[in-house]
Amino acid sequence: MKILMLSPDAQMIDRRILQEAHSLQALGHQVTVLSGFECREPDAYQTTDGVIVKRYVYDWQDRRLLALRGRHPLAWRLLWPFMRVRDRLLDRPAGFDYFVLEKALEHEFDVVHVHDYPALRPGVMAAQARGVPVVYDSHEFYPVQSSFTPAQQKRHLARERRLVRECVQVITVNPYLARMIAREHGIDEPMVILNACPWPAPQDDALVLRADEPARAARRREFGIPPDAFTFLYQGWLSPERNLDVMVRAIARVPSPAALVVVGYGDYRAVLENLATELGVADRVHFLGRIESEALVRLTPACDVGLIPYAAVDEMHRYCSPNKLFEFVMAGLPVIANDLPYLRDVVAGHDFGWLGELESVDALSSMMAQALASPDRLQQYATHAIAARQQLNWDREAAQLAALYARLEAAAQPAPPAQVQALRTAPANSS
Fold first, then answer.
1. Which end of the chain is more exposed for a tag (fewer CB within 10 A), N or C?
2. Whole-angstrom Cα distance, residue 221 to residue 354?
3. Is residue 339 within 8 Å of residue 319, measured between CB atoms?
4. Is the whole-model pTM more than 0.85?
5. What are phi and psi of 4, to 5 degrees?
6. 130 in Cβ contact with 109 (< 8 Å)
7. Alpha carbon of 269 to those of 12, 244, 262, 273: distances in Å?
8. CA distance 37 to 103
9. Is 44 helix (H, G, I), strand (E, B) or coil?
């Protein structure tokens, strides 16, 4: 099948998206990923396994306006304001949706696989234009995030409720979100495909790296981390609602050789850098910026403890299932995490870390100090994290994706003519 994936990711394509694309490509499908649409620079390339990736820069040309000018070259200036108000009141697609639709329709496809809510409406439009099915992969329950006003949340929920009914399958990342989406939209529970990771290459396996201390020290130097520091690692988007200032304040209370390694990007980085300077720990907080997934799998197992400090600022964050949780598992890292429902299920369920109220600097610094002072417990947690890989790996999750697309491919096959079917089912002639 020709699969068209749509994603709003403008900065960096989510690891989950690329894993799904590679897994489907390995099954013999042809996958094209259109991601971003608001990137700084356009880009297009093909991965070594044949996945096609295209990135776009939104040109801010509203296709509705261009069409109106063509139909009414004299009156469009008068009609355009009324048309915009009408479309907003009726919740019709806006200019950006049509831009994404235009790019989608430049391709041939048998199914549209939408990643996240911002791409859902143009994805449904593209599928309807070609008469093909839509798969909706909801990485988070986007409409309920706290950055929206109550009126905006209500509008987005209503829109998503309509659109999911156009999808042959809804997917999400953990059972909590699956139940919430089903309840809010009155649909069957979505399929759960975890944000698990592929198995690492032998040279990046935690078991191999930790048995070779010189190699581990060299790996740290490769990324600019002091080789003898006890490293706490955060990786992900840098933004205020993720409780990241608490990490910096906490590391200031933990004695050296403890260091904090921060991987990620976002405007909030400047705030965290200033805070580290104010607290006198700028030399112990290492900001590494954006690191692609291929390099991140080399860095993570060279650290000591992973941090997941997300605060429950809304339902989307309360039931989060972050990539880093599974990246830490695959790297065999013990974890210090905020005590949120799904994080508790995984971390406590597999017994590989500490849970607490990480909005508190006292609580986080106390758990950091425990990790630093408890080498036996740390080793036990690391052993449990490595054991958890047997259940929390991408091979298991990819099997569900493969089964879904096998069903879609079977449904797309034309039924044989009745005469041929009759011949196939008739008993053989004994003569």
1. C
2. 28
3. no
4. yes
5. -105, 115
6. yes
7. 17, 10, 9, 6
8. 9
9. strand
Structure confidence by residue, pLDDT tens digits, 120-156 = 999 999 999 999 999 999 999 999 888 899 999 999 9
For tokens 């700084």, what's the residue?
40
The Cα–Cα gap between 260 and 283 comes to: 10
Of residues 365, 382, 368, the one with CA closest to residue 330: 382
In the sheet that holds 258-263, the strands lie side by side as 285-289, 258-263, 230-235, 305-308, 335-338, 353-356
Cβ atoms of residues 160 and 120 within 8 Å = yes
38-46 and 52-57 beta bridge pairing = antiparallel
DSSP letter for 210, please. Answer: H
Q: What DSSP state is assigned to residue 119?
A: G
- Residue showing tokens 């080498």: 375
Q: Which two tokens stand for residue 44?
A: 């297009």
pLDDT at 309 over 50: yes
Other beta carbons within 10 angstroms of residue 4's beta carbon come to 26
pLDDT tens across 144-193, in order?
Answer: 888 899 999 999 999 999 999 999 999 999 999 999 999 999 999 999 99
What would the DSSP string read from start to end of 298-358?
A: HHGGGSSEEEE----SSHHHHT---HHHHHHHHHT--EEEE--HHHHHHHHHHT-EEEE-T
